[in-house]
Description:
Layout: H1 3-33, H2 39-58, H3 88-104, H4 107-134, H5 138-144
Amino acid sequence: xxxxxxxxxxxxxxxxxxxxxxxxxxxxxxxxxxxxxxxxxxxxxxxxxxxxxxxxxxxxxxxxxxxxxxxxxxxxxxxxxxxxxxxxxxxxxxxxxxxxxxxxxxxxxxxxxxxxxxxxxxxxxxxxxxxxxxxxxxxxxxxxxxxxxxxxx
Length: 153
């Protein structure tokens, strides 16, 4: 895959990711507006925010990229949440959008959430392929950590 194809594919996945976030937010809005946010959704949202903050602290803004293509000159971060999972930002995103799907409480919202999960799985697969090409230490790091959930997956 050439660089132009990488950019287009990665940009398409980012667009899908944030498009599905918008869909889920719109679906959850009526319940949220009425104050009908379930306790489990609050807990998931809080977990997402904590993981997001921890991830930003471990991997500064200039080093990570919402695009799956690694930054040129970027460094491989293996500390903080990255010591447990390879894609903590995606996990935080999934937790936060899980809270939206739980709040929306509809089959359509869960379908959107599962679709988002697949988009992030595919995006992380591409990102890992490109990380392997850019960071020789990524092979060992990948063997030592899980993709999204510590000790599980």
